[in-house]
Amino acid sequence: MSILRLRLLVGFLGERAQFGWWPTAFYEPSGRLFLEPIFSKTPQVAQYHGVVEAARRLHDEHLSAGTYHLFRLPEEMEQDLHVLVQRASEELSPATLYRDKHVALDALTDMTGSAKKDGVGPVSIGRVGDIADHLTAIASIYRSAFLSNAKSFPYLVR
User: How many of the other CB atoms lie within 10 Å of CB of 148?
Assistant: First the structure.
């Protein structure tokens, strides 16, 4: 599982039409239509950054300064993710991949594997340098939060 795929999935599920954690609609058809005249060559990149910024703000409001989370990673990782989004274009569009929140929740369940971690509010996960080892736990926390109508904010430290 990749950081990017988990970020896209949680970003999609957090939008207004799914669980409403952030008040955006970038992955809805109207969101794409809104962005295309301005970002005609890269609307999928604009969608991605819009959702990431909305999710980042919500997480930052609930977490301490200096922590990392799925939507705020060290700069090198953020740059790598941006390049991946630019290259992948439509094949990684959550609206195309998941269609609705039920399909997306199934995909999130698949990502959790056997992990059964949950929590409400800030949840400590580990070190940001080991994020690849913690993706299933992070996915499990978000899945539990979405299903229980709670908000969880898994975070990592340097």
Answer: 11
Location of structure tokens 């580990």:
126
Give the span between the Cα atoms of 148 and 54, in whole angstroms: 21
Query: Which residues in the chain come in under a pLDDT of 70?
Result: 1, 32-36, 39, 89-90
91-128 b/e (C-beta count within 10 Å ≥ 16 → b): ebbbbebbeebeebbebbeebbeebebbbeeebebeeb
Q: What is the 3-state secondary structure (H, E, C) of the chain?
A: CCHHHHHHHHHHHHCCCCCCCCCCCCCCHHHHHHHCCCCCCCHHHHHHHHHHHHHHHHHHHHCCCCCEECCECCHHHHHHHHHHHHHHHHHHCHHHHHCCHHHHHHHHHHHHCCCCCCCCEEEEEEEHHHHHHHHHHHHHHHHHHHHCCCCEEEEEEC
Predicted TM-score (pTM) of this structure: 0.91
What is the residue whose two structure tokens read 């992955």? 27
Between strands 152-157 and 121-127, the pairing is parallel
**What is the widest separation between alpha-carbon atoms in the chain?**
44
